[in-house]
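Chain A, query sequence.
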Amino acid sequence: MNSWKTKIKITVNFESNTELLSDNSMGIYFEYDSDETLVVHFKPLNEVFSESTLFSTQGVLINFERDLIDEDDIEYALDVMSLFNKFPQYHIQDAKEVNQISKIIELLKDEYCSATVSYIMLKTLLKVLLLHLIRFQNDELLPQDIHQKRVFQFLELMEVNFLKETNSDYYANELGISTKRLNQILQDKLNLTAKQIIQQRQVTEAKRKLIKSEITTKELAFELGFESISSFSRFFKKNVGVSPTVFKSQQHS
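Chain A, predicted structure.
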């Protein structure tokens, strides 16, 4: 896959958020505090790493676009979203766990730098790494910010329902808060409103379907809940820069 470099990036000792692939990417920074302690920093969608993270003198950044997890089953995608939104960082202090994570990171780095790099291998190794982190995090009983919890609950609901529910009121009602309060929390944590996040998810899904399937623009517009092809085409071009037809032809050229 020729475009794999736009989907995943591995950086040793990164120094600035400008090095990230995009705002709509996910990042994990592994800071080696000692041989037996690994500090794991998470950058969820639409956020950046804190300045204190960038002061680390030794570490590895693994940065990837969200469609790497969207290509798999929804349960896995939700687990990954939970991993990134529960806690901004946590410490792995078990020597065996640190060793396991370090070995997977080295395999990822070796594959990433290989002259015969395989996109499938990168994606598989990334999945193994994420599954290990999910398991380790689930074993930890850490305090969770109530607003961060609401963010995850919203993202989880949206992931399951965005194809049929695009109104912010629906998600606010499901969470038992007002739409105004939901938007305040999302603005504070992600700097986006509920509607903007839903639209961002629609764009990601539209791009994925146009690349991966033979779906027509009309079928896709209907599937994403648009009233007409023209309204979907305007929405897609506004967010992507080209029409759905042009985007699809560019991906298959």
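Residues 111 and 117 are 6 Å apart (CA to CA). Residues 4-138 form a domain with the Jelly Rolls fold (CATH 2.60.120).
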